[in-house]
Write a structure and sequence with these properties.
Elements lengths: L2 H14 L6 H16 L5 H14 L3 H17 L3 H10 L9 H17 L3 H15 L5 H21 L3 H10 L11 H17 L2 H13 L6 H17 L3 H18 L2 H17 L3 H44 L3 H45 L3 H4 L12 H16 L10 H8 L3 H12 L3 H19 L8 H7 L5 H12 L3 H22 L1
Helix pairs in contact: 1-3, 2-3, 2-4, 3-4, 4-5, 4-6, 5-6, 5-15, 6-7, 6-8, 7-8, 8-9, 8-10, 9-10, 10-11, 10-12, 11-12, 12-13, 12-14, 13-14, 14-15, 15-16, 16-24, 19-20, 22-23
Length: about 525
């Protein structure tokens, strides 16, 4: 269908029917709303234009609620949670005239929206409201629909909070096979939930048939779903270390995203690409997508702050409206004020806590590494030395210790040919004396002694010279004196407690975080 022509027809329709609609025109109006709903996940921008035109020409509360919910859904598909919140809360303006079914659907949509911007406690409040409304429903079809949506929101909320085991336990304890009986939206969402649980719990084998079922449900007219499916497949390949396939599926997801333009879905696929290119040591592609990812995250942070502020104001307005309508007494008014204050505190505290915990995690790891790697060898020297017969003359022992200190301050230990015999010859002593002194004063053997010096050397390079973070691991291994990439990675992790790739990634994030912070404070 030519959606531009379709939009024009709607425009003419609204011009000639601006106020009252008879039975025939009302039927046409419902048909147009259905068309806009069907195209929401296929051509959301065109569907949005249609819905906005229909909303202008609507004069019944039921239609306004439907259209506001539809417009909110479209904005959510486009990743615009600020506008989605505005239209969603507008649907709930005339709460007294809304049906129980409408109220339940609005509360479920609020649950989904607030969850998307990490307001989990507030999301759960609206989910409980939806549960309450179910008890007032009498139509069995409506009861089933609302209960199904509540179950899906409960599971998705657990996934959003990364409580994957709990979500899986709930699915195992309850029989949700009804979701899989029909080819509908509930089935798609339920399979996506199962796939995400399996991916995050490492159950890749059982995830294969679920992903196959998802692929069969792909419909070119539901691009929003198709993007999510390919992203899940990409993640599944990534977790199984099939990075090439992960890249292929993530890129396929991004091709479809061009038509949908949802920055949150773009973040997911870009993260998969960044991690996959990093795992394959494809430095150029990694840098390209990592730069894009940092830009995306910055934009998302701004969007989330705007959406949170908007939601807070809307909730505040909603409370005020409810207060004026119900004419609550002094006690309820006091509870309302306390509730608003707590809500503001929770929202504000969440934003602050999110940034704080992120920075704290990086700071703690980097601080730990700085302490443990500042002087790896000096710490063991403070240990109490066990008294035993000393076969080495004191003067000779002191001379060798002095030479070891000079050796540690140089970079001669990065020589691949260094050995106990070579170093003993350089010190003009025998291997027995040198080995015994290293063991006595450092409580380690010669090989561990050299490895610690090399790891400490490369860590200092990475911390003090940012360009080193862009070098390949194989180059860093060679530079510090290791014979292979694998031996370097193994030794690095055993000494520092973290892999070199992770260490470099943390350093990069810590530097980016330090650069961003001043501008945010300004």
């Amino acid at each position: 269908m030519n959606y531009k022509l379709f939009s024009f027809i709607i425009f003419l329709f609204l011009i000639f029917h601006p106020s009252r609609l008879n039975g025939q025109n009302a039927a046409k109006q419902q048909l147009l709303i259905a068309e806009a709903q069907n195209s929401a996940t296929f051509q959301p921008n065109e569907s949005l234009k249609i819905a906005l035109l229909l909303l202008k020409g609507s004069n019944t509360n039921e239609e306004k609620v439907k259209l506001n919910l539809l417009i909110s859904k479209i904005y959510s598909i486009l990743g615009d949670y600020t506008n989605a919140a505005n239209y969603l809360f507008e649907a709930n303006t005339n709460t007294e005239s809304n049906s129980v079914f409408q109220k339940a659907k609005i509360n479920i949509e609020k649950t989904a929206l607030l969850k998307s911007i990490f307001l989990h406690k507030q999301s759960n409040i609206y989910l409980n409201k939806a549960r309450y409304e179910v008890n007032n429903l009498t139509n069995s079809k409506q009861i089933y629909e609302i209960k199904s949506l509540i179950i899906l929101e409960e599971l998705e909320l657990l996934l959003h909070k990364q409580e994957y085991k709990k979500a899986k336990e709930i699915i195992q304890k309850n029989n949700y096979n009804s979701f899989l009986q029909k080819e509908n939206i509930s089935k798609k969402r339920f399979l996506l939930i199962q796939s995400r649980i399996n991916n995050n719990l490492g159950d890749f084998h059982n995830n294969i048939p679920i992903l196959e079922s998802l692929k069969k449900l792909i419909n070119k007219e539901d691009k929003y779903f198709e993007i999510q499916v390919w992203n899940e497949i990409a993640k599944n390949y990534f977790y199984q270390q099939n990075y090439s396939k992960a890249i292929e599926c993530a890129l396929k997801s991004q091709e479809i995203l061009v038509e949908l333009d949802n920055i949150y879905l773009l973040e997911n696929t870009t993260e998969t690409l960044v991690l996959s290119y990093l795992a394959l040591n494809k430095e150029q592609e990694y840098k390209l997508f990592n730069t894009k990812l940092l830009t995306i995250k910055t934009e998302i942070e701004k969007k989330e702050e705007e959406a949170i502020n908007t939601v807070y104001n809307l909730i505040n307005s909603e409370y005020r409206i409810n207060y004026s309508v119900k004419k609550t007494d002094f006690t309820k008014k006091l509870y309302l004020s306390i509730g608003l204050f707590l809500l503001f505190s929770i929202v504000f505290g969440f934003v602050v806590y999110k940034k704080y915990t992120y920075k704290k995690r990086l700071t703690e790891i980097i601080s730990y590494l700085k302490v443990t790697n500042k002087n790896i060898l000096s710490k063991v020297e403070k240990n109490e030395v066990i008294n035993k017969k000393n076969s080495i003359p004191v003067e000779t022992e002191q001379q060798i210790l002095n030479k070891l200190k000079k050796f540690e301050s140089s970079s001669k230990f990065t020589n691949k040919d260094i050995s106990l015999a070579v170093l003993a010859g350089h010190f003009e002593t025998n291997t027995k004396y040198l080995s015994e002194i290293i063991n006595k004063h450092y409580h380690i053997n010669f090989n561990t002694y050299i490895n610690k010096l090399r790891v400490n050397f490369i860590i200092e390079k990475l911390k003090t010279e940012p360009n080193f973070c862009n070098y390949k691991i194989s180059y860093l291994a060679e530079l510090s004196g290791f014979t292979s990439h694998s031996s370097f990675a193994t030794v690095f992790k055993s000494i520092s407690g973290i892999s070199p790739i992770t260490f470099i990634d943390i350093l990069k994030n810590e530097r980016n975080d330090t650069q961003i912070t001043p501008s945010e404070n300004e």
